[in-house]
Amino acid sequence: MNSYLFLAGAIICEVIGTLLLPYSKNFTRVYPSVLLVVCYVVAFVFLSFAVREIPLTIVYATWCGVGIFLVSVLSYFLFGQTLSWQGMVGLVLIVVGVTLVNGFRGEPS
Protein backbone atom coordinates (compact mmCIF):
# COMPACT_ATOMS: atom_id res chain seq x y z
CA MET A 1 0.00 0.00 0.00
CA ASN A 2 2.88 2.39 0.74
CA SER A 3 4.09 1.91 -2.83
CA TYR A 4 0.84 3.33 -4.13
CA LEU A 5 1.29 6.36 -1.87
CA PHE A 6 4.76 6.86 -3.35
CA LEU A 7 3.25 6.54 -6.83
CA ALA A 8 0.60 9.13 -5.97
CA GLY A 9 3.32 11.44 -4.62
CA ALA A 10 5.35 10.97 -7.79
CA ILE A 11 2.33 11.86 -9.92
CA ILE A 12 1.55 14.95 -7.86
CA CYS A 13 5.16 16.17 -7.98
CA GLU A 14 5.41 15.57 -11.72
CA VAL A 15 2.14 17.42 -12.37
CA ILE A 16 3.22 20.39 -10.24
CA GLY A 17 6.59 20.47 -11.99
CA THR A 18 4.95 20.38 -15.41
CA LEU A 19 2.50 23.13 -14.49
CA LEU A 20 5.45 25.28 -13.39
CA LEU A 21 6.99 25.19 -16.87
CA PRO A 22 5.07 28.25 -18.15
CA TYR A 23 5.85 30.16 -14.96
CA SER A 24 9.58 29.49 -15.35
CA LYS A 25 9.61 31.44 -18.64
CA ASN A 26 12.15 29.07 -20.25
CA PHE A 27 14.10 28.84 -16.99
CA THR A 28 14.67 32.60 -16.83
CA ARG A 29 12.74 33.01 -13.55
CA VAL A 30 14.68 31.54 -10.66
CA TYR A 31 12.05 30.49 -8.12
CA PRO A 32 9.67 28.65 -10.45
CA SER A 33 12.66 27.03 -12.17
CA VAL A 34 14.17 25.76 -8.93
CA LEU A 35 10.81 24.51 -7.69
CA LEU A 36 10.21 22.80 -11.03
CA VAL A 37 13.53 20.92 -10.84
CA VAL A 38 12.93 19.97 -7.20
CA CYS A 39 9.46 18.62 -8.08
CA TYR A 40 10.87 16.47 -10.89
CA VAL A 41 13.70 15.12 -8.71
CA VAL A 42 11.28 14.26 -5.90
CA ALA A 43 8.94 12.62 -8.43
CA PHE A 44 11.73 10.32 -9.61
CA VAL A 45 12.74 9.50 -6.04
CA PHE A 46 9.14 8.57 -5.25
CA LEU A 47 9.00 6.48 -8.44
CA SER A 48 12.05 4.55 -7.31
CA PHE A 49 10.24 3.63 -4.09
CA ALA A 50 7.05 2.73 -5.96
CA VAL A 51 8.79 0.20 -8.21
CA ARG A 52 9.98 -1.77 -5.20
CA GLU A 53 6.58 -3.46 -4.93
CA ILE A 54 4.68 -2.49 -8.06
CA PRO A 55 5.82 -3.73 -11.49
CA LEU A 56 7.52 -1.05 -13.58
CA THR A 57 4.96 -1.42 -16.38
CA ILE A 58 2.13 -0.61 -13.98
CA VAL A 59 4.00 2.28 -12.35
CA TYR A 60 4.98 3.89 -15.63
CA ALA A 61 1.58 3.48 -17.30
CA THR A 62 -0.18 4.93 -14.27
CA TRP A 63 2.32 7.78 -13.84
CA CYS A 64 2.10 8.81 -17.48
CA GLY A 65 -1.63 8.34 -17.93
CA VAL A 66 -2.76 10.05 -14.74
CA GLY A 67 -0.15 12.78 -15.22
CA ILE A 68 -1.35 13.56 -18.75
CA PHE A 69 -4.96 13.61 -17.60
CA LEU A 70 -4.30 15.90 -14.61
CA VAL A 71 -2.08 18.32 -16.54
CA SER A 72 -4.72 18.59 -19.27
CA VAL A 73 -7.57 19.21 -16.83
CA LEU A 74 -5.59 21.62 -14.64
CA SER A 75 -4.33 23.53 -17.69
CA TYR A 76 -7.96 24.21 -18.56
CA PHE A 77 -8.54 25.83 -15.17
CA LEU A 78 -5.16 27.53 -14.64
CA PHE A 79 -4.27 28.67 -18.15
CA GLY A 80 -7.62 28.72 -19.94
CA GLN A 81 -6.45 26.12 -22.43
CA THR A 82 -9.10 24.12 -24.24
CA LEU A 83 -9.29 20.71 -25.85
CA SER A 84 -11.25 19.63 -28.89
CA TRP A 85 -13.81 16.90 -28.45
CA GLN A 86 -11.26 14.50 -29.93
CA GLY A 87 -8.80 15.50 -27.22
CA MET A 88 -11.42 14.90 -24.54
CA VAL A 89 -12.16 11.46 -25.99
CA GLY A 90 -8.43 10.78 -25.90
CA LEU A 91 -8.28 11.71 -22.21
CA VAL A 92 -11.16 9.36 -21.48
CA LEU A 93 -9.35 6.60 -23.36
CA ILE A 94 -6.21 7.26 -21.29
CA VAL A 95 -8.22 6.84 -18.09
CA VAL A 96 -9.79 3.64 -19.45
CA GLY A 97 -6.36 2.35 -20.47
CA VAL A 98 -4.80 3.04 -17.07
CA THR A 99 -7.77 1.37 -15.39
CA LEU A 100 -7.41 -1.70 -17.59
CA VAL A 101 -3.66 -1.93 -17.02
CA ASN A 102 -4.11 -1.70 -13.25
CA GLY A 103 -7.24 -3.79 -12.99
CA PHE A 104 -6.25 -6.71 -15.17
CA ARG A 105 -2.53 -7.02 -14.62
CA GLY A 106 -1.26 -10.55 -14.61
CA GLU A 107 0.71 -11.67 -11.62
CA PRO A 108 4.12 -13.10 -12.49
CA SER A 109 4.28 -16.88 -12.30
Walk me through the structure.
This protein has 109 residues and is mainly alpha-helical. It has one domain (2-103). The chain is 79% helix and 0% strand. The protein is built from 5 helices and no strands. The longest helix has 24 residues, at 56-79. The mean pLDDT is 91.
How is the topology of this model organized?
Elements: H1 2-19, H2 21-24, H3 30-50, H4 56-79, H5 85-103
Helix pairs in contact: 1-3, 1-4, 4-5
Overall mean pLDDT score? 91
- How many structural domains does the protein architecture include? 1
Low-confidence stretches: none
How much of the sequence lies in strands comes to under 5%
Query: Which class best fits the helix and strand makeup?
Result: mainly alpha
Give the N-to-C terminal Cα separation. Answer: 21 Å
Largest sheet: none
Helical fraction equals over 70%
Radius of gyration: 15 Å
SS element count, helices: 5
Number of strands: 0
Query: How would you sum up the global shape?
Result: flat
Order of helices and strands: HHHHH
Short characterization:
The chain is mainly α and 109 residues long.
Give descriptors for this structure.
single chain, 109 residues, mainly alpha, 79% helix, 0% strand, flat
